[in-house]
Amino acid sequence: RRCPRCGEAPAFDGYLKVRDHCDHCGEALGSYRADDAPPYFTIFLVGHIVVPLMLWVEKDWMPDLWVHVLLWIPLSLILTFLFLPRIKGAVLGAMVHLGIH
């Protein structure tokens, strides 16, 4: 969540909006388009966590459908909201490091 170049100032305004530039080093963070890859990677990661857990719970306990709904939808949303800004920061950092605009 910090500038990938200097590590000092925040890279985001709010939850996911990338700042136009770093207040500390002046890196033009707004020119990096890290918009499409982070949600894809987040869905991929959350799916690889939730689906095996879902299958394990179904295999061992066979709960009713409403139990699945109450378990997996909130867990999926929580994990998505936790991972998305971190993955977006990692993608932004990789783009800055590799010089991909």
Total helical elements: 2
Gyration radius, in Å: 18 Å
Secondary structure class reads mainly alpha
Share of helix among residues? 55-70%
Average pLDDT works out at 97
Low-confidence stretches: none
Oligomer: single chain
Order of helices and strands: EEHH
Percent of residues in β-strands = under 5%
C-alpha geometry:
elongated
Pfam families: DUF983
Protein name: DUF983 domain-containing protein
Keywords: Membrane, Transmembrane, Transmembrane helix
InterPro entries: DUF983
Care to describe what's here?
The chain crosses the membrane at residues 39-57, 69-87. This is DUF983 domain-containing protein. Keywords: Membrane, Transmembrane, Transmembrane helix. Pfam families: DUF983 (PF06170). The chain is built from two helices and two strands, in the order ββαα. With 101 residues, the protein is mainly alpha-helical. It has a domain at 32-98. Strands 1-2 form a two-stranded antiparallel sheet. α1 (37-61) runs antiparallel to α2.
